[in-house]
Structures are given as C-alpha cells and as structure tokens.
Write a sequence for this structure.
C-alpha cells in the first residue's frame, strides 16, 4: 500500500482513541498502521477505519521502517522510546512534555508557528526524521484564540484561569469520574485513586506537582514557559491558575488579555472571526456561550463572553484589556488533532 508507515504509541489511551477517529474523519494517508501500548495490552484488538489491528507491546525494536510515530504514552515512555523511532528514520510527534522545552525541538501549534514544521522538514524526502513536540493542552486551548489578537494588536499580558476536564489525566481518570459520580449519587463513599481529591461534583487545584517556592503547579508553569517559546517572546506575562473540574471532556478557560495597542469591540470580533481553528459562540441575547459539552468532539476552540475590561487603559471606545471565555476539546485540538495537523504539514497533505 502506498502512504507512510504510521505508529501510534499509546494506542489504547484516551488520546490514542482520538487519533483513530481523526484518521477516519480527515482521511489521513496511511500505508501501514501499527498500534503500540504496554505489555498489558499486547494482543488486544482495536478497529481503526474499519480494519482490525492487534496491539503490540512497545519495544526498542518497534519502529523499523516507520515514517511517522505519534507518541501519546506518557513522558517516561517518550524519553525511553522516541530516540529509537528517530534512529529508525521516523518523524516523532510527541504529545508528552518530555521534549517540549528542548532547544532543538520545535514546539508547534500549526495555526501559530506551523512554518517550523516546514523548516524542520525542509529538504527531507517523504518525511523528515526527528522530534516535534505538541504543546500542553491548556496552552493550545489558550493560544489558538489569542493568536489573531496577537497578530493584529500584540499581546502584553494574559491572566488565565482554567477549568480542566478529568480526561486530561487519561482514560483511567475518565473512568474514575464515572465511578465516583455513580457512587456519590448512590450515597456511597469511594476513595479516589487517580486524583488526590474526589473529582465528581468537585473543583480543585490542578493535580500536577506544586513547586514549594513559586506556588505554581507544573501545569501553570507549562503554560508560562510554552507560551514564551511558541510566541518567541521571553517578556510575555502569563499568570495562570489551573483548576480541575468534575467534567468528563473538554477544558474551559477564562482569559483576561492585555493587548499592546487598544482595539474596538468590532475589531476584536473581526480578528477572532477571521482566526484559524476558532468558532465564535457568543450569543448575548440567548445567554449562550461555550461549554465543555458543546466543545466535546469538535476540532475548533469555542470563543465567547467577548467583552472589554473597563478597568484597563481605554479611550474613544478602544480598550487594551479584553475578557474571553473559551472551551476546547483537549483530546482533539489539545492533543491528537494538533499532532495530526503537524503530521499532515510534514507530509505536505
Ligand atoms: N488526555 C489528554 O487530554 C492529553 C492532552 C495532551 C497531552 N496528553 C499526553 O498524552 C499522553 C497520553 O495521554 P492519555 O490521556 O491518552 O493517557 P492514557 O489514557 O492513560 O493512555 C496512556 C497510554 O500509554 C500507554 N502506556 C503506558 N505505559 C506504557 C508502556 N510502558 N509502554 C507502552 N505504552 C504504555 C498505555 O497503554 P496500556 O493501555 O497498555 O497501559 C496507553 O495506551 C500523556 O503523555 C499525556 O500527558 C494527554
């Protein structure tokens, strides 16, 4: 069969599942597909685009002849196996945080800096070799809607509060939300295993490790560091508060952005309407705005509650401060879709 040999590393996970839906939806060109997971899943059958595949255990020898390796098996596995894939000649697109801040690894959101994929693959044949990193899901969901504002008006500072779904912590976390929800409704007490707090009917500080001195958790630090790398702006102010909510799928974020030059509401709306990967969802009359349920299964980031921040500099109906509420499916644009867009760009399709 013509087309690249593609590996999905982490095929049995929440992101793996999304890759398969997107292969079908986008008619992603695949000559041969191999599905890898842990030894626990070896032998498991999965159907992708109507064809049944057998999951294999990921080993150093899994990558012979592979063109594209889509990694979503956790940072430790990326660190252990990605170089084996590169040595076998593959382009690794990594969903974990393992390589994001490495100087020689492009950190790519195609709507923002897709040209890095072109540069990385320039001169290569069918595909290039090496590692390209996918940013953190909250970073992607924040930056895609801010990009058209940055391009037109510049961005000085972002204050962002996230409302992150359980599925951001993987398939087992989604199951934990279901189990704990049922238990809570039945009046039973069930101890959480994935999160340190009960995720059903609850809201709590993001479960990633907390830095004892900065008071920031790792998710918040990623949003700061990755924004600076992607926008190539070491000065940009990012003030995140990352929160987990008892929602199954799709992250939300409340964003207060300070622009470099003031803009009228019509110009802000015009910029957002023209932005790539964005769907406006801002019905003031109907009081209808982005929700995780509306965003689930969608490729675009929903943007609403667009309004000026009157406490910041303004004159003649033009404001530097703007408020937005956004929702995006972090399994899609925050992970699998972003990786597939990178692969498509590398393949020139
Ligand atoms: N969930 C999200 O929204 C999201 C968003 C952005 C990035 N990511 C990143 O994507 C990665 C996967 O996330 P996920 O949500 O899909 O997690 P998940 O549902 O927990 O799936 C993890 C996958 O990794 C595999 N795996 C675990 N240990 C392995 C090993 N020793 N060797 C080979 N495969 C192994 C698992 O296979 P078994 O089933 O055999 O254990 C499973 O396929 C993580 O790095 C995560 O940070 C996730």
């Amino acid at each position: 069969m013509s087309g690249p040999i593609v590996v999905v590393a982490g095929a049995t996970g929440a992101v793996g599942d999304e890759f398969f839906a997107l292969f079908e939806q986008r008619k992603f060109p695949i000559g041969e597909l191999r599905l890898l997971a842990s030894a626990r899943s070896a032998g498991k059958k999965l159907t992708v685009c109507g064809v049944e595949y057998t999951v294999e255990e990921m080993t150093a020898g899994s990558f012979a002849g592979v063109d594209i390796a889509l990694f979503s098996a956790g940072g430790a596995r990326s660190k252990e196996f990605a170089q084996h894939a590169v040595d076998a000649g593959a382009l690794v697109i990594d969903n974990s945080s393992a390589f994001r801040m490495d100087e020689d690894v492009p950190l790519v959101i195609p709507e923002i800096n897709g040209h890095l994929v072109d540069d990385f693959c320039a001169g290569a044949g069918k595909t290039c070799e090496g590692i390209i990193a996918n940013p953190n899901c909250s970073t992607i969901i924040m930056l895609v809607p801010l990009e058209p504002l940055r391009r037109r008006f510049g961005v000085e500072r972002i204050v962002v509060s996230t409302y992150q779904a359980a599925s951001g912590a993987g398939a087992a976390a989604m199951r934990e939300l279901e189990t704990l929800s049922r238990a809570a409704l039945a009046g039973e007490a069930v101890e959480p295993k994935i999160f340190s707090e009960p995720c059903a009917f609850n809201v709590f500080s993001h479960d990633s490790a907390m830095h004892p001195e900065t008071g920031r958790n790792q998710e918040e630090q990623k949003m700061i560091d990755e924004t600076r790398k992607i926008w190539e702006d070491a000065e940009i102010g990012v003030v995140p508060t990352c929160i987990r909510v008892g929602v199954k799928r799709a992250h939300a974020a409340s964003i207060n952005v300070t622009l470099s030059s003031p803009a009228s509401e019509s110009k802000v709306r015009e910029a957002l309407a023209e932005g790539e990967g964005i769907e406006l969802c801002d019905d003031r009359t109907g009081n209808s705005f982005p929700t995780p349920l509306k965003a689930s299964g969608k490729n675009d980031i929903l943007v609403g509650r667009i309004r000026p921040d009157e406490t910041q500099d303004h004159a003649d109906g033009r404001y530097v401060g703007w408020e937005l509420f956004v929702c995006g499916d972090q399994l899609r644009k925050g992970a699998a879709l972003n990786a597939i867009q990178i692969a498509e760009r590398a393949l020139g399709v």
